[in-house]
Write a structure and sequence with these properties.
About 45% of the residues lie in helices and about 5% in strands. Strands 1-5-6-7-4 form a 5-stranded antiparallel sheet, with helices on one face. Strands 2-3 form a two-stranded antiparallel ribbon.
């Protein structure tokens, strides 16, 4: 690659990206304090998320509802005009199968990937240009066809250091030269801690997660902070139903499983008669956490399996055991009445 192709664009920042004020030409860049989560997201863990057996379990737990997947949403665009047709039974069945496939595509889950680690990496130090200018210089490869993730963006500091751009610099430059629809140059104030909390309390989980997917790259620390904070709030409030049949429930359950936080979801499932989901989540949990002694075979009593899982992997054992006992009692009464 020639120097002309590599640094096709030369972008000069006048008093930009000052860490004291965190501004880019009067564009405010909001900084987010990172919230630690229990388990580091590694490449190995990310590969497990994309593994077909895990994806199948997450899709089953999502419970895709065609009506919810294609519901009307306020996205600032005029809805398509409905079309009415006379169809035979065979044509209706074919159309229903196609709609189910399209619904599955609509709930395709956002990826869970590790944080990018090469941001800000020092490439060179040239002491001869120290004091040449008080501003930073950003060099950007604007070759068409290069993804935003792989695009070369480097910064020359006034002290002579040449380094790779940080995440805010990369975001601003990519959005300036190759703007993406729905993504803003500066991060929306809704992602600031003080503004995010009321949205979480209001239960606007899907709106927050959709906006985060649009605004941030999945390996951005801001994305991780917003998304994992939302997952944590959903789990603590047990509002899983608000994300059911959306693309976000699968990653949420994956987050709970790899962080070993099964209590609230299992309690929710037992209290709402979702026994199959209990078994599916235990399967997911055992796939992500090696060394468990629980065997998921058909010969073992399922109630005993859940009881063993609660005793070995859960913290809120009292409430979970009580919920399991109540579930068994209710179903025993139903079975006796039907006989």
């Amino acid at each position: 690659m020639t120097l002309r192709n590599l640094f096709t664009s030369f972008y000069r920042l006048q008093n930009g990206y000052k860490y004291k004020h965190k501004s880019l030409n009067n564009i405010t860049v909001y900084s987010f304090s990172s919230q630690p989560h229990d388990r580091e997201i590694t490449k190995e863990l990310s590969n497990m998320f994309f593994a077909e057996p895990v994806q199948d379990l997450l899709f089953k737990l999502t419970h895709v509802d065609v009506q919810k997947a294609f519901r009307k949403r306020f996205i600032g665009q005029n809805p398509d005009t409905p079309i009415y047709k006379f169809m035979t039974t065979a044509e209706v069945e074919k159309m229903q199968a196609e709609v189910k496939l399209k619904a599955k595509e609509k709930v395709q889950m956002p990826p869970i990937v590790p944080l990018r680690t090469d941001l800000g990496q020092v490439l060179d130090v040239n002491k001869d240009i120290i004091g040449f200018d008080s501003s930073k210089f950003v060099f950007t490869d604007i070759t068409f066809g290069v993804s935003d993730k792989k695009r070369i963006v480097v910064v020359r500091e006034p002290n002579g250091i040449l380094r790779k751009a940080n995440e805010d610099e990369r975001h601003a430059v990519n959005q300036i030269y190759f703007p993406q629809s729905g993504r803003e140059l500066k991060h929306p104030v809704m992602f600031d801690d003080t503004n995010l909390k009321p949205l979480l309390e209001n239960g606007d989980y899907e709106f927050i997660l959709d906006r985060a997917c649009c605004q941030f790259e999945p390996d951005d620390k801001n994305y991780h902070r917003v998304v994992f904070s939302t997952y944590k709030h959903v789990d603590e409030s047990k509002n899983y139903h608000l994300l059911e049949s959306t693309r976000h429930l699968g990653p949420l359950l994956f987050y709970l499983a790899f962080n070993k936080k099964p209590d609230n979801f299992l309690l929710y499932c037992l209290e709402t008669e979702r026994f199959d989901d209990v078994m599916l989540f235990i399967q997911l949990y055992t796939k992500l956490n090696q060394g468990l002694e629980i065997e998921l075979d058909g010969s073992k009593d399922k109630f005993k399996l859940i009881e063993d899982f609660i005793n070995t992997e859960c913290i809120d054992k009292v409430n979970l055991e009580e919920a399991l006992k109540n579930y068994i009692t209710r179903n025993s009464e139903i079975a006796s009445k039907s006989n």
